[in-house]
Every structure is written in structure tokens, then in C-alpha cells.
Amino acid sequence: MSAPLAGVRACVFDAYGTLFDVNSAAASLRAQLGDQAGPLAALWRDKQLQYTWLRTAQGRHADFQVVTRDALAFALQALGLSEQLQAPLLHAFDALAVYPEVPQVLSRLKDAGMRTAILSNGTPAMLAALVEHAGIGRWLDAVISVEEVGAFKPHPDVYRRAVERLRLEPGEISFQSSNGWDAYAASAFGMRVVWCNRAAQAPERLPGAPDIQVSSLAALPELLGIGAS
Length: 229
Known about the structure:
The protein has helices at 24-27, 30-33, 37-58, 64-78, 86-93, 102-111, 124-134, 156-166, 180-189, 220-223, and strands at 10-13, 20-21, 97-98, 115-120, 142-145, 173-177, 192-196, 212-214. With 229 residues, the chain is α/β, with parallel strands linked by helices.
């Protein structure tokens, strides 16, 4: 039987929430945040995404570092937390924990000759810091930031940029994201899509339809027809 993702020549990964745990920044300051760590992480992430969409809709782009800072400032004020927590939290956001299966998955993909890349809202500097901290750079062929197009996901130009950089057709790329809206948008663009639904979200009512839904990236090599190492 052929693999569900047969014919794929490159795997492109979302960064935040897919390769890297966005909740780990607040968790790293649990001593200061106490039981507010979870609510802060959730509100910070919600406002971060909202600001990307709203800025793109308004045509008022600011890079993801600015958006992340502004979203955190909102979340801290909304929860009545000290603004002095902003600097250490932003520092922690540049050193997010990588999900445990990620290094082995990337290693297996590269050993099998698969091209790999990140496609993310993050700035080049933010992504470079994450990749270096996680030690996964040797398994990546490209790290692509939305700053190359000046708009955030799910603008089609973002997914088109990955196609241009890799010089492949959309259907030759498997795109992996933990964000449902991102997975559906990449599918609507024409990519093959693995929705890494870590949070067991309900299906989106949006254009597109991910090819496969998984709860982690561990099964990705097998989906591509890559045997156990």
C-alpha cells in the first residue's frame, strides 16, 4: 500500500505550537506567575494571533516581535500582572521548548532525503534564536519568515513564498501545523497538509481540508513512506 503522502518532496513546518511549545515561556516563570501561568499563556497567544490577523486586514503590518510584545502587554494588564514580567517572558519566548518528538522526526526526514523548512510568522531573528536553542538547524534546509512578503498567515502570499523558495509545486509539499486555521489555509492554497492537532480542536469551518489529522508529529515519517530508523 502506498503512503498517504506519496509524492511529497518537501516537508514545511509551522513553528509556534507545531515545533515549539508556546506555553513553555509562561511555564518557565511559574514561580513568579503561580496559577496565572496557564491563563497568561492562553490570553497572550490569543491576542498575538488576533493582532496578526487584524494588522493584515488593516494593511498595517508590524513584525511578529512587535505583535508578540504588544499582545503580552495586553495580557499582563488584563490579568493584573506586573509589567516587570514582560522582559523575562519575552526572553523566554525566544527559547521555547521544542516538542520531544521533533528532533528525531526531522533527523529521519533528512536521512531519507526529504527537504525540510520552517514557514512561520516569526521574524528571522526570532526563528534563528529558536532553531539555535533547540539545536535543530542541521536538519532544516530553509527557515522562511513572513517578513519576506510583509503579511501574516493565512494570507496566500505566505504559502506561495514557500513554494517559490523550494521551487516546487504546492502539491509536492506537505505542510504541518498545529493551528487549524493555518492547516486549512495551506490546504486551500493547494498544499498537502498534516494537521498536528495537539489540542484536540474541533474541525474548522473554513475553505480547505487537511489530508491527515494527528496528535503529534511522531507518525509523519511513516505517512511519507519512510521506514523506521
